[in-house]
Structures are given as structure tokens and as C-alpha cells.
Specification:
Blueprint lengths: L8 H5 L3 H17 L6 H7 L4 H4 L6 H23 L6 H18 L1 H9 L6 H28 L7 H18 L8 H15 L13
Helix pairs in contact: 2-3, 2-5, 2-7, 5-6, 5-7, 5-8, 6-8, 6-9, 6-10, 7-9, 8-9
């Protein structure tokens, strides 16, 4: 179970197929042009809809951004929570959660870019809700690092800083992926797992070889 369940979020997201289509179209336009440079008219036009057809689902452009951000942040939190196995050793837990986190941001890079990099455009109330989900996401990694430190598997210099660095690195994948060097989400996830284990002072990290 996550720290920030999807309480009341269904109504915010919109449950209809039309709402889902609008969110998907908005993600592509926001990711390409940026939230500030996009109008709801452009989003509607990309779906061959009239601007008025968006209004019953999302009354403002900001409410549409919030729905996208809410959906994305809950999805990534759910992904790492499902990947975590508290009954196994901390290095294995960090491996599975970092893998899930990085792959999610690579596979969902357009929605992740919008959800992660357009936060400043949310209303204060909506920003606070998203910030709470982000804190819950970071806590998943913090608890794993703490468990590893207690067990002697990790020797982190700063637990909170390490968790923030791991999440920041994962988020940034959505900005640049794919690249000439990395085009397979599983490969970049494996590289970031190795980096994360070294970052927390893993007692026996895997060898970090340069990609060919």
C-alpha cells in the first residue's frame, strides 16, 4: 500500500474515455511545446474536437495539467511500491525499486516530463497535493537506505541526500531518453542501479563497466 493512496483522485482525473483521450493529447502537446506555450484550443484541435468539448471534462488548462500530474505521480509511486519487497535484503530492494523507477520514467517519458517539469504551473493547492505524493515516493527509497544502513549493507554519507539524488537521477531520464548510447530502458536502469548502490555505500556493489 502506498503512503499517498489515490483518494478522491478518480474524480479529478476524469473516468470517461474522452477524458483519457484529452489527457493523452495534452501530454503530447505539453511535452512538445511546454505548458505555458500551449492552449486548450490546440489540444482540442489535435483531437478534432471543439474547444468547448474539453470544458465538461477539464474546466481549465491548469486542471488538465493537475490531472496529468496526479495520474503520473501516483503511477510511479505505485510502480516502485509494487517493486519493493521488504522481506529481502536492502541491496535487492534498492535494485528492484530503482529499476522500476527508471524504467517507468523511460517508458512514460512524455507524461513524466509534463508531470515532473511543469509543477510550477500548478495552483498552490494542487502543488501541495503533488508535493505530498513526491515525498511519499522519496520515502520509499529513504526507508530502504535506512534498512540497509541498519543491517550494515549500506554505509551512506547522508541518507536523505542519497534518496533525493536517486529520485532526481531517475526523473531526469524522462528529459533525455533515448540517447545514442542508451536506447533500452533496461540497460539504463541497470546502470542507474549500480550508481545508486555506490551512492549509498553498498558493501558489495556490482562492478560498474562502461557501456560498449
Amino acid at each position: 500500500m502506498t503512503d499517498a493512496p489515490l483518494t478522491g483522485a478518480v474524480g479529478e482525473l476524469g473516468t470517461s474515455k474522452a477524458a483519457a483521450r484529452i489527457r493523452a493529447a495534452a501530454i503530447e502537446v505539453f511535452a512538445a511545446k511546454g505548458y505555458g506555450a500551449t492552449t486548450t484550443r490546440e489540444i482540442a484541435a489535435s483531437l478534432d474536437m471543439s474547444p468547448g468539448a474539453v470544458y465538461p471534462h477539464y474546466k481549465t488548462k491548469e486542471s488538465l495539467l493537475y490531472a496529468i500530474s496526479l495520474e503520473g505521480h501516483h503511477a510511479v509511486l505505485a510502480a516502485i511500491t509494487a517493486a519493493d519487497r521488504p522481506d529481502v535484503a536492502a541491496p535487492d530492494r534498492l535494485t528492484s525499486t530503482v529499476t522500476a523507477y527508471v524504467i517507468w520514467h523511460a517508458d512514460n517519458r512524455a507524461s513524466a516530463r509534463v508531470a515532473q517539469y511543469e509543477l510550477r504551473s500548478l495552483s498552490p493547492v494542487h502543488f501541495a497535493i503533488i508535493a505530498d505524493i513526491r515525498r511519499s515516493t522519496t520515502k520509499v527509497f529513504t526507508r530502504i537506505i535506512e534498512a540497509g544502513a541498519t543491517a550494515g549493507d549500506f554505509h551512506p554519507f547522508d541518507i536523505e541526500a542519497a534518496a533525493l539524488a536517486i529520485t532526481s537521477l531517475g526523473v531526469d531520464v524522462s528529459r533525455w531518453f533515448p540517447s545514442h548510447t542508451y536506447s533500452d530502458p533496461r540497460i539504463i536502469a541497470a546502470r542507474y542501479v549500480e550508481l545508486a548502490l555506490r551512492m549509498v555505500g553498498c558493501a558489495d556493489p556490482q562492478p560498474l563497466d562502461k557501456p560498449s
